[in-house]
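Consider a typical record:
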Amino acid sequence: MLWNSTLEVGVPQIDTQHKELFRQVDILMDVNNKTRIPETLKFLANYVVKHFNDEQVLQAVSKYPKAELHKSYHTKFIATFNELKKEFDASGPTLMVMMKINKTVIAWLKEHIMVHDKEFANYYKSR
């Protein structure tokens, strides 16, 4: 899941964190790196929470009118990610579980960044 300039939102702190999320997801997708999957999932679980909190602070400071809605997307994703992690913990790195994790995480990140984070970033930069 390669990072590219179309995913930039133009807020350096957010872009840096998004790049790290993509780098970690790339580790998950590397089938030759199965031993790193548990530690990567743990890292992502923690990093996602940190990143979302950082975004939410920026939203609060800038009085973003859609902050609560945006936070609800984060909350739902954390719940989904935690369910995927539980499934991994129960089953291990089976092909089905890994495909489900990768498909869900990649699709959500891309859509969330391209739609919701870009919308917030445009608002934030205009303040």
Notes: The CA atoms of residues 17 and 51 lie 7 Å apart. The chain is about 80% helix and 0% strand. The chain has a mean pLDDT of 93. Residues 67-127 form one domain.
